[in-house]
């Protein structure tokens, strides 16, 4: 007799999520019960459905200690690239693995970060629509060749972006925690100190995870002082495709309003969805996208396949792939 596998997905179905997971789980000896909670802020429904779930994919939903305490059956919290919305201590106390997906969205996020940089260079003009409207509004943009891009972080995403930027003729510098790893064979990348990067880059691109505590804390890493350093250098542009909490958003809005940061391009925000009343929506020198950097068809299929594969592993009492570093050794 088949066992029931209940997977709680805190996300809207994009047309391929449920189908991909069902296909990957089929013929593995389990009856599937896939539950979608489309509103990631619907804590009441998530709290109700998590009680009987075997596997939870929080996506961007917050999973609290109280939810984890009530989740008597849960064997796995399968996150995406980031896992900052889940109470890791509570998961550790229950010995429930929390896994992420390192590298799966790297190509997609790197390409999106480059798209945002090109959008800034081209003044974020919707020429296509202007031409359709019968207009002929020309403008002066800039070349990226010869400009310096500073990458905060040098993981999978940053290394891909470094290659793309280098191919455009840009100078690439990066800072990373483990400087002894160097540029990992990318001889065109100089590994530099954090402050040097802020002061010497035309464009600063944030490519690190959000960490809220400990010696590696990145929450609030970019505040007023750091924004002023970026503003002094070159173009004074800032791009964030990581997590909104890495930047002090209030300070960023002020620096954009005062033209300290001349341009910014953001895919992530302190509060998501970005509130309708956010000042960021009204500033003319900001390009905004709705946290879609990793949402390409290719990356999503890899993501959903991993959810299914890790679900089968834990149901078969096997160790899942990519347990987050904070829980390794405890689980």
Automatic annotation (TrEMBL):
Record's Gene3D superfamilies? NAD(P)-binding Rossmann-like Domain (3.40.50.720)
- Give the D-isomer specific 2-hydroxyacid dehydrogenase catalytic domain ranges: 34-324
Q: Which domain of life is it from?
A: Bacteria
* Keyword set includes Protease: no
Q: Which SUPFAM superfamilies does this one have?
A: Formate/glycerate dehydrogenase catalytic domain-like, NAD(P)-binding Rossmann-fold domains
The terms under GO molecular function for this entry are: NAD binding; oxidoreductase activity, acting on the CH-OH group of donors, NAD or NADP as acceptor
Residue ranges of every copy of the D-isomer specific 2-hydroxyacid dehydrogenase NAD-binding domain listed in the record: 115-293
| Keywords attached to this entry | NAD, Oxidoreductase
Tell me its family: Belongs to the D-isomer specific 2-hydroxyacid dehydrogenase family.
Q: Which PANTHER family match?
A: D-ISOMER SPECIFIC 2-HYDROXYACID DEHYDROGENASE CATALYTIC DOMAIN-CONTAINING PROTEIN-RELATED, D-ISOMER SPECIFIC 2-HYDROXYACID DEHYDROGENASE FAMILY PROTEIN (AFU_ORTHOLOGUE AFUA_1G13630)
Q: What is this protein called?
A: Glyoxylate/hydroxypyruvate reductase B
């Amino acid at each position: 007799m088949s066992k029931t596998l209940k997977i709680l997905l805190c996300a809207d179905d994009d047309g391929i999520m449920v189908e991909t997971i069902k296909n990957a789980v089929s013929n593995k000896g389990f009856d599937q019960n896939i539950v979608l909670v489309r509103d990631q802020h619907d804590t009441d429904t998530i709290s109700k459905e998590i009680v009987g779930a075997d596997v939870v994919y929080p996506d961007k939903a917050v999973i609290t200690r109280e939810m984890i305490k009530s989740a008597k059956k849960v064997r796995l919290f399968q996150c995406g690239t980031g896992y900052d919305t889940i109470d890791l201590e509570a998961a550790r106390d229950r010995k429930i693995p929390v896994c992420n997906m390192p590298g799966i969205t790297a190509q997609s996020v790197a390409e999106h970060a480059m798209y945002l940089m090109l959008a800034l260079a081209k003044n974020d003009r919707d020429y296509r629509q202007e031409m359709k409207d019968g207009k002929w509004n020309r403008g002066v943009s800039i070349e990226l060749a010869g400009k310096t891009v500073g990458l905060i972080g040098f993981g999978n995403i940053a290394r891909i972006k470094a290659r793309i930027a280098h191919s455009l003729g840009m100078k690439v510098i990066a800072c990373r925690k483990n400087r002894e790893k160097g540029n990992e064979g990318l001889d065109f990348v100089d590994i530099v100190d954090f402050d040097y990067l802020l002061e010497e880059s035309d464009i600063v691109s944030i490519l690190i995870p959000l960490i809220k505590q400990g010696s590696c804390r990145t929450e609030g890493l970019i505040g007023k002082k750091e924004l002023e350093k970026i503003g002094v250098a070159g173009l004074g542009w800032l791009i964030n495709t990581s997590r909104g909490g890495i930047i002090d958003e209030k300070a960023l809005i002020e620096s954009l309003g005062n033209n300290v940061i001349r341009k910014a391009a953001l895919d992530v925000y302190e509060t998501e969805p970005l509130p309708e009343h956010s000042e960021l929506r009204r500033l003319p020198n900001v390009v905004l996208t709705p946290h879609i950097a990793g949402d390409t068809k290719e990356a999503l299929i890899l993501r959903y396949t991993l959810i299914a594969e890790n679900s089968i592993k834990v149901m078969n009492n096997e160790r899942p792939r990519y347990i987050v570093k904070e829980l390794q050794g405890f689980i």
